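Weekly sync, protein design subgroup
Attendees: M.S., D.O., the rotation student, P.L. (late)

Item 1: inverse folding check
M.S. brought a backbone from last month's batch and wanted to see whether the design step gives back something sensible before we order anything. D.O. pointed out we never logged the input encoding, so this time it goes straight into the notes. Structure tokens as presented (407 positions):
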């Protein structure tokens, strides 16, 4: 909490002078009251939470500088939270300056921000430099402190936890984007992960898209992830997707889990989506799962999204899985009805039946209701309550009431 408060204080010191002269500052506040059962303590808990998202634009004449921020604070009413000095917690998700064209074709992002490369992703306190149009290529350079969170608790990690990387991309081939990258992560100054990766997307005639991704872990000398897919529309209302996915779990070299033996996972997927009309859409999919050592499973899913009348939207889906680990059958049903232009109600039922090979069988049910109301252009209310029934609880109520304000 101390680190978060310090970051928020520094952020305010930077923002307030700028905001005084800024042409445009926007913010969204989400104030929540939550009640739920803490799965760790087994006790009922109540909590207040405040989420705040802000952006400042038009900070210079060219409007190339923007500031973005998003964070939350929570106050728990549980007795054990007060005893452990964790009743007040904070988290800063991002706060960064985005400066386009610092110099020609060079963009800068500085502060706490999320970075994503084909070789890995992280939330960092640092900087990203994006260099465009170096001939036919683009270059990204990034690095900073690796920001880690522990569950619902405060931020953890120190200055010796870092993430750095570089990516090079090109669109020189018509309708094709290729990016290759390198990423390196340290844990307490020790190299924890070193990865190279590549992504390729190309668009072919007749509405065909082909894409692929690959990651290679340099420390374990293993292809940790591989994806190849094709998506095309043979008919105007029909979209077909085929994918092959392969994963070999790798862990940080500094983790004790890195010494355990793991199996490779493979999945082959086909999916079809068909629009009967603008108001009725069908989808279905099949996946063959291979867990190595002769263990496999089959997964099926089908559903429909319907709008029988203008103000009513319904969604129904069924999924079934059989094979390694046991059998699963599940049904999802939910709907939303717009009572007026400002008020809507929604409800849903989830039902899952588990038949496991080695653990206890169980049937899990979730019932939920919710509603939204917009008072005016800037203030709205959202409420949701649900009841979970499973092998552990005959009834487990939880819910949230939220007031959103835009200013």
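Designed sequence read out in the meeting:
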């Amino acid at each position: 909490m101390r680190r978060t408060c310090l970051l928020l204080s520094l952020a305010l010191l930077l923002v307030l002078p700028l905001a005084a002269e800024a042409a445009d500052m926007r913010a969204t506040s989400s104030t929540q009251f939550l009640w739920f059962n803490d799965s760790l303590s087994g006790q009922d808990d109540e909590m207040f939470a405040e989420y705040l998202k802000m952006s400042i634009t038009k900070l210079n004449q060219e409007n190339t500088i923007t500031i973005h921020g998003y964070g939350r604070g929570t106050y728990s009413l549980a007795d054990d939270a007060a005893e452990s000095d964790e009743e007040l917690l904070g988290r800063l998700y991002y706060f960064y300056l985005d400066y386009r064209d610092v110099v020609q074709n060079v963009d800068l992002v500085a502060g706490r921000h999320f970075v994503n490369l084909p070789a890995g992703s992280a939330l960092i306190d640092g900087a990203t430099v994006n260099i465009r149009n170096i001939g036919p290529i683009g270059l990204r350079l990034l690095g900073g402190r690796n920001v880690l969170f522990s569950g619902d608790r405060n931020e953890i990690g120190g200055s010796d936890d870092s993430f750095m990387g570089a990516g090079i991309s090109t669109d020189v081939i018509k309708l094709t984007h290729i990016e290759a990258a390198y990423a390196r992560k340290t844990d307490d100054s020790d190299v924890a992960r070193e990865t190279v990766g590549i992504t390729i997307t190309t668009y072919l005639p007749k509405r065909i898209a082909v894409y692929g991704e690959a990651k290679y872990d340099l420390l374990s000398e293993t292809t940790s992830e591989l994806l190849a897919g094709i998506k095309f529309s043979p008919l105007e209302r029909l979209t077909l997707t085929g994918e092959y996915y392969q994963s070999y779990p790798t862990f940080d070299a500094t983790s004790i889990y890195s010494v355990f033996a793991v199996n490779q996972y493979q999945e082959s997927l086909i999916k079809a989506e068909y629009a009967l009309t603008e108001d009725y859409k069908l989808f279905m999919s099949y996946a063959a799962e291979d867990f190595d050592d002769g263990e496999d499973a089959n997964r099926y899913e089908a559903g429909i999204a319907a709008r029988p009348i203008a103000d009513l939207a319904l969604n129904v889906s069924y999924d079934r899985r059989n094979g390694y680990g046991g059998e699963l059958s599940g049904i999802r049903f939910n709907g939303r009805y717009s009572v007026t232009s400002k008020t809507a109600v929604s409800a849903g039922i989830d039902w899952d039946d588990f038949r496991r090979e080695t653990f206890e069988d169980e049937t899990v049910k979730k019932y939920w209701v919710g509603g939204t109301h917009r008072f005016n252009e800037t203030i709205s209310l959202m409420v949701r309550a649900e009841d979970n029934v499973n092998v552990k609880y005959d009834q487990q109520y939880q819910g949230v009431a939220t007031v959103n304000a835009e200013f």
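Discussion: The first helix runs from residue 2 to 21. The helical segments are 2-21, 79-83.
Action: P.L. to compare against the previous round before Friday.
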